[in-house]
Design a protein that fits this description.
single chain, about 170 residues, six-stranded mixed β-sheet, 6 strands, alpha/beta, globular
Length: about 170
């Protein structure tokens, strides 16, 4: 996710997460700024740097590809809907929540191997997943299993509030 649109997305999620921390947990972090590793940096009230690493989960590889093609207006997304000819997207008999959870687990496992040298939060953004919303959070969180050892301060999952564009964050344990 090294392109400008992906970096802008990571920064937007990081800033929404900072707002969540400040509003819900009573912290006073400053606005997030883009960074390479982790994806964003903020400062606590004492001026100490805190990192935010953002990763995303999708129902499947095609869902990820389609999401980013739409965001970048590339591929079939550039054509009008009447011109776009592609196979219909079918999840088949796959449970979409189970597929999303599997994707999130894989991403968490990969990210939990990394160390950043500063206290860092991991935010797993699942807001792209239109069928899985914040009302599904208890089931999603029960199914996610964090590795015993990881270097993150905390891990949070972001889900869209019941078919809106508002993202709610939930702590994974």
């Amino acid at each position: 996710m090294a392109d400008e649109i992906a970096k802008a997305h990571e920064l937007a999620i990081a800033n929404r997460f900072v707002e969540f921390l400040n509003e819900q947990l009573g912290t006073s972090y400053g606005p997030a700024e883009a960074s390479e590793a982790p994806d964003a940096l903020t400062r606590d009230p004492d001026g100490n740097m805190v990192g935010i690493e953002v990763t995303c989960g999708y129902y499947d590889d095609r869902d990820a590809k389609d999401t980013w093609q739409m965001a970048r207006a590339t591929g079939d997304a550039r054509r009008s809907s009447s011109e776009a000819v592609q196979e219909p997207k079918v999840l088949g008999f796959v449970n979409p929540d189970a597929a999303l959870i599997s994707s999130a687990r894989d991403s968490i496992d990969r990210h939990c191997l990394r160390r950043y040298g500063i206290p860092t939060y991991l935010v797993v953004d699942l807001s792209h997943a239109a069928l899985t919303t914040s009302s599904d959070a208890p089931a999603v969180l029960r199914a996610l299993h964090l590795p015993r050892r990881h270097w993150f301060q905390r891990v949070y999952v972001g889900l869209t509030r019941n078919y809106t564009r508002h993202i709610e964050f939930f702590r994974a344990t």
